[in-house]
Amino acid sequence: MPPILPPGIDNGNHDDIDVREALFNDAAIGSISYVQASKERITQLRGILFDLDPKLYRTGPISPHVPSDPREFFDLIAQNWLARHPLLQQAQVRISGIGLHAIINLDPPVVFCSDGERDRWAGVVETVQAALPVDPDQPGMTAVTRPVGSINSKNGASVELLREGTSVTADDVLSLFTEMCKTPFRTVMTILTGTNRLTPCPICQGEATTLSALDYSGQCYGGCGKIKLQQLYDLVLQPRDRKHEEGRR
Ligand SMILES: [Zn+2]
Question: DSSP 3-state assignment of 158?
């Protein structure tokens, strides 16, 4: 059994199996049942997690090869997504054992003075997480990570720090939040592809077609017409049904 520790106390036992680390309140480290908290119990936010598991992603026109090894997945795919946005560039990246945990660390933490403020930030976190193609079932503000050096029992791998990253401020996070509210399609397309104009269109792949990013949607000229944001995510995410089947196996 992993030890139960008081909040914020790190006893150095990072070889413990399946230990978790909170990105909220006092950054508790301990067993999942000790560390996890309901949204209502969160009084300060220290980080935003993007759970990037190679199993979530499919090959396709914008990612012809998806490595299953987390380090190769970072080098070939995730690193590029993060590099294409000034906030995501600051993320810390850990190999969680099987996938990657990219973490936007907030310093100072965002302290909530009211339930309303916490609820507003819960929305900010989920909106910011949607800048990357994360699992739609991933928790928002309540997400926890794994401490560096701990063991993931799923494959016995130890959690590694791949990139230290740099802390950001609440205003930095709110700036991506505003972008995601005002220009979600352009923001996500730029992060996923590095451009706001692609020839041929990756959705229909028709000859002489071009996908251009507008603010809320895309437009495929000479091909499939109006493109929704969900269709961009679908270019890289496995179909939900298949993923759920794999999860049940
Ligand atoms: Zn098209």
Answer: strand
pLDDT tens for each residue of 17-74: 999 999 999 999 999 999 999 999 999 999 999 999 999 999 999 999 999 999 999 9
**What's the pLDDT tens digit per position in 147-157?**
999 999 999 99
Distance of CA 129 from the midpoint of ligand 1 (Å): 26
- Ligand 1 geometric centre to CA of 204 (Å): 4
What 3-state class would DSSP assign to 96?
coil
3-class DSSP state of 180: helix
Question: What's the distance, CA 55 to chain centroid?
Answer: 14
The amino acid at 160: E
Nearest-angstrom CA–CA distance, 52 and 94: 10
Give the max Cα distance, the chain: 61
Q: Positive or negative, the Cα torsion across 117, 123, 127, 129?
A: positive
* DSSP structure string for 31-77: -HHHH---GGG--EEEEEEEEE-GGGB--BTTBS---SSHHHHIIII
Task: Give the Å distance between the CA of 201 and the centre of ligand 1.
Answer: 5
Rounded to an integer, what distance in angstroms lies between the CA atom of residue 40 and that of residue 163? 31
**pLDDT for 246:** 47
* Residue ranges of domains in the chain: 1-177, 183-249
Check residue 187 and report its DSSP letter. H
CB neighbour burial string for 218-237, b if at least 16 within 10 angstroms, e if fewer:
bbbeebbeebebebbbbbbb
What angle (nearest 5°) sits at the alpha carbon of residue 196, between those of residues 194 and 199?
Answer: 90
Place of tokens 């997400």: 143
Expressed in angstroms and rounded, the spacing between residue 222 Cα and the centre of ligand 1 is 7
